[in-house]
Amino acid sequence: MTTDPLEGLRLPIVPVDPRPEYADALLRRMETSERAVAVPSATPTVRYFVDDLDRAVAFYSRLLDFEVELRPSLAFAMLYRGDLRLLLSVPGSAHALPDGTLPEPGGWNRMALQVEDLAGVVTSLSEDDVHFRTDIVTSVGVRQVLLEDPSGNLVELFEPITGYHERPHDPAR
Hints:
Helix content is 23%, strand content 26%.
């Protein structure tokens, strides 16, 4: 009779009975990750139309800490800052409305980015000749300033103050 030379290295099989709360939490995380894969649009996304893609990519990556994820053409780039996805597009026929109208950069819609030291960030961006539409103003729960990207799209930088409220992050959602 031959014996298995690895028999002495085998560990005994021990049944595992996890705590119910651990098992429930693990199941929620698994279901959440499955939903995230099944629903790719769960990532917060902003699209800005720009006049000059090179200048816009440089602005967001160099001055506002976005990372360039994709740049597959001269008319499109995808950038990330944390979980925020920013799509930059040069208007073209693919974006035209049925009457031929093309989207234009600018307007009042904007993304809002939280910063820790608003005055310091404004000073730093001023040194890079960034165009500000407003001075720093105090609003409900925040101090904020509006600036323009190279195409005239608005970006709001804000710093929380007393009274600021943010919904707690819930990984189960």
